[in-house]
Specification:
The protein is α/β, with parallel strands linked by helices and 229 residues long. It contains eight helices and twelve strands. The protein folds into two domains: 118 residues, Rossmann fold (3-Layer(aba) Sandwich), CATH 3.40.50.2300; 96 residues, Winged helix-like DNA-binding domain superfamily/Winged helix DNA-binding domain (Arc Repressor Mutant, subunit A), CATH 1.10.10.10.
């Protein structure tokens, strides 16, 4: 079961804030509502939430800018709310470290379940003593959640690390995007698996000497991805 959390819900539509808040409170969470980006940043700094539900289309300060600022101050799980036509913003948001997204119109029950999945995943403690995975010039410390490549430390978002660790722990095994969504993201809802694609691309940009010809994170066409150890 996911831990009880303080959740900042940011949306300029009062009915969405109300309904989402209702479902999250039913699960025992404390909900902090915000109607625009400026208010969201103020409340984020004052309340230190455990998770943020963030609409991308906001007055005052855009959701993308809010995501950028809060992730630069303190890493926190973010679930984005996006309209159907906002694919580019969604990709940017995922690149900034957002963990998941829900497309409007959405089921509040589904959103609440995704919140639970993200909290459960981020709340899991690292295995006692951790462990280190080493592949040529890539080093993954599962205890400290630190990654280095060619001797240089690499900053990964929480979800990027989770995905890398999972793939690297099963070298040569091929996973579909749906399998990775279920295992790494923790939910099995019908979703746009571009979430996985974006995270793999970001990992390649950070880890691979030549992202166009990846050494570690390989695509198996028409199937999914595998880690080549």
């Amino acid at each position: 079961m996911a831990p009880v959390a303080k959740i900042l819900v940011v949306d300029d539509e009062p009915n969405i804030r109300e309904v989402v808040g209702l479902y999250l409170r039913r699960d025992g969470h404390t909900v902090v509502p915000a109607a625009d980006g400026a208010e969201a940043l103020k409340l984020y700094r004052r309340e230190s939430p455990d998770l943020v539900v963030l609409d991308l289309m906001l007055p005052e300060v855009s959701g993308i800018e809010v995501c950028r600022r809060i992730q630069s101050e303190r890493r926190v799980p973010v679930i984005m709310l996006t309209a159907r036509g906002e694919e580019e913003d969604r990709i940017v948001g995922l690149g900034l470290g957002a963990d998941d997204y829900v497309t409007k119109p959405f089921s509040p029950r589904e959103l609440a379940a995704r919140v639970e999945a993200v909290l459960r995943r981020t709340g899991e403690a690292a295995p006692e003593g951790g462990g280190v995975l080493v592949f040529d010039d890539l080093r993954i410390d599962t205890g400290t959640r630190e990654v280095s490549v060619r001797g240089e430390s690499v900053a990964l978002t929480a979800r990027e690390f989770d995905l890398l660790q999972y793939l690297a722990s099963h070298p040569r095994q091929v996973f579909t995007r749906d399998q990775l969504m279920e295992t790494v993201w923790g939910h099995v809802f019908s979703a746009d698996t571009s979430t996985v694609t974006v995270h793999v691309r970001r990992l390649r940009e950070k880890l691979e000497a030549d992202p166009a010809h990846p050494r570690y994170l390989q695509t198996v066409w028409s199937v999914g991805y595998r880690f080549s150890g």
